[in-house]
Each structure stands twice: as C-alpha cells, then as structure tokens.
Amino acid sequence: MQLPKNFRVLSVFLVLLLLAAGIKAFTINNGFKVSLNTRGDKQVDGFSTRLRSFVADSSDYKSSDSDFSSEDEKSSEYGIPASDGDENEDESPTLEESPVPMSKNAGNRFLAFVFDKSLLSIDAEVDVMDLHEKRISLTEDHVMYCRKANLYNETFNTESMADILWSYQLLSSDLKRTVGHAMCIESKTLENAQKALANDPIIQMLTKGDISKIPFYRWRHIRDHTLRMDDGRNGIPNLLISMDRLPEEVPNVASMRENVHKDYLEYLIRSESVIAAGTLHLPTELKDDPSSIAVGDFVLFNAPNRQSAIEFAENSPAAQAGLYESMKLHRFNSLDVTGKFVSTDLVNPQGTRRTEEMKEALEHWGYPVGDQETKWLNW
Known about the structure:
Blueprint: H1 5-26, E1 34-36, E2 42-44, E3 47-48, E4 108-115, H2 128-137, H3 139-150, E5 163-171, E6 178-187, H4 190-198, H5 201-207, E7 216-221, E8 236-244, H6 253-271, E9 274-281, E10 294-303, H7 306-314, H8 317-320, E11 324-335, H9 353-364
Antiparallel strand pairs: 1-2, 2-3, 4-6, 4-7, 5-6, 5-11, 7-9, 8-10, 8-11, 9-10
C-alpha cells in the first residue's frame, strides 16, 4: 500500500530533524575553552566541571539520574537495583559498625609548627637549599616513623601512646623548596604528644630532639561539617597560622577575640573553602585548665591562587579587627602518614612502588595495616 504524499513528506522532514538534533548533540568542539569562574571552579564552555568526592561530602547524587538505566530494571529511589523477592537470590552480607571505634590515644589534639631555619643557631650560616635537601632525604624515614606510631592493636605495638593524624610539608612562597612541616598529634597526655614530636627523625636532625623552640599548641578543632571541605576542591590547599597580639601590648586582646568570634566563624562557613579550622591554645595537661588561653587560629583552606589565599586571610573579621600580631600562609604537600591510602598508580606504577614496599615491610614486621585492623584511621 502506497502512503499519501503529504505523509511521506512529513516523515522525511521528521527524520531529517532528528538527524540534525543528533549530530548537534554529539558534535565535539576541539577548540573548547577552559577557564576559572569567580568561585574557582573549572568551566568548560560555560558548564561547571568541579569535581566532588561523593564519599566525603554525602552528595545527593543518585545513580537513577543516569541516562543509561534500563526502563525494565526495577530500582529503588536511589537507583539501586531492587530485589524481585526471590529468596534464592544470592545476597552480599551487610556489616554495619556504628559508631566507628576511636583510637586508644584519642583525647587531646596538638599542633606543632616546625620551621627549619628558625631552629638553627642565629650565628650559623644557613644554606636553605641544603636544609631542603636534608629534609627531603628524611621524608621516607619521617613517614615510616609516623606510620609505626599509628599502626597498633590490642596485642601489637601497644606502647604507642600518640597518633600522628597528619603531617604537611610547608613550601616556600616560590614553591621551589620545603621550609618546614606541620604535624597534628593526638594523645591522652601532653607529655606523650611532645615525646612523639621529639622522636621524629626530622626533629632529631634539626635539634637532636630539643623541642623547646618549636611552636606547640593545643588545637580545639571545630568538627562541624560546614568546615570540612575536601582538600583541593575549588582550588589549592593552603595553611594559615594567625597569632594574636600579645596581652602586654593589647590588654583587651581576649575580649577582642570574643567579640569577633561569631563574625569570624560565619566568615569561614560562608567561604565554602575551609578544610579544617580551630583555635590555638597554650598547651596544658588538662583541657579545662584556665591557663590554656587562646593565642591564635589555624585554618586549612582551598584557594585558586596565592593572591586569593592572601585576600581570604586579610579579609577575615578577625584580621580586619586587628586581632593578629602575625599571619603565616603556606602551600603544602600532604604526606600519607597513615598508610591507608596506598594504591598502585596504573599510569606510572614505579611512582608508587616505594610506598607499596613500605606497606609490605610493615605488614611483614607484624604491624596491622588492614582497614579492618585499624578502623579509626579510615578517615
């Protein structure tokens, strides 16, 4: 049977229209432009390509949003394939552990800021590149020391009395050398935290274990989820150390800090760039010791470039109010001191081989390196 002429014309028109739409949808423009918008997100032809960690930020992404799901496949509202009720169907066992067990050393969190040049004699001639080379040569020893401190269980390495939560290599402003490192140590006692710092191979090289000149503080880490962005999101991680003016110079510095606290906290939250933040206090054995007064602030945050990082620091309400005597801003390298994130680089396997060998050696010596053995380290 022959179709009417008008119907054939309409059919041809619809086919051409669909073909044109398909070509437009799948055309690749090799000349796309990548730029940064005002928030620091990467833009490709006007579309944001900001990366998110779906594990870390509890994203509301649902796999049911995908264009590749089958209409015949039953799924829940979260896109997970739903069971059809077959009792014989194999099911993977689900193990829920809540809450996650805490470390035996949890209780007090301290920060140490190690600046290599300041620890040397004033009269000594300092070769900054030589200091850099010495520090780099001890990086593997430093990481191994931290991992040994962190890896223990009920029967092995029980004498470890401090956890080293993180260690960051501080970089010079030109990013050409290291100038020191910052460490976060958690322990039930001040003495054990200081002992963990003193035995660090890098500290042994610089001062033979003398930590009297190393800035060391109790850190009251703000645990709110609004100040826990992934490092590297919306820019590059930066580290900011801001120290208050001395009471001898500004008698009302304590009230100044109290007055600006609410605005300062709101500033950090609204920035949507803070990785971690908290007040620095004088280190005391007990948290509620009245002598453990606030002396500064510590912030890890993301910024697209150094100028933006400087502006973030200078525009905070605390800085604008004149609270700080000094502010130090550094880019840093994050060292994997837990050994929990060792995985093979599929592009360059040799690049991760040494870290894999370190993990294998620790396991050979009896250290608990598995996720199920040290669950408190699975941040």
